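pinging the channel bc i need a second pair of eyes. not urgent but kinda urgent?? the chain im working w is below, pasted from the shared doc
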Amino acid sequence: MSYDLMVYLWDDAMPMATDWQDRIVDEGFPVKLSSDFETQSMAGFFPVSMYGSQSGFEYLYRHADDEELFEVGLLGKANRSALFSAKDNEPKEKIAALMASSVLAAMTQGKLVDPQSGESLDGDAAIHWAKRQIDRISGRNG
């Protein structure tokens, strides 16, 4: 079973990998993205390092069709989606996906959607939400 997160954004807002990594560091997250990938064409397993070990998640950046955008209330407010998919039974994968997706949502003024819970968060609120989820997964603060 997988744990999926979606970020909806405008294509022209998608950052370069180095800018994305810089913002991840600025937010205090310990995840390190691979530096040799194209954010708009990468598809498949996305390796990262975190807490001194290797982890990762599935990543897919694609065109979001009108029906999908309508369903999430973003018709006319985005044209792309980035899928972050982690194994549900792999906490490190889930944490890495939360870190990367929330920062992407914040830096693109996008929207992070958690299909499991139905929660939808704009921009910087996505980072605060992700930090709470990471604490929960890690067994900190409840």
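so The first helix runs from residue 17 to 26. and The mean pLDDT is 92. — does that match what u expected or am i reading it wrong
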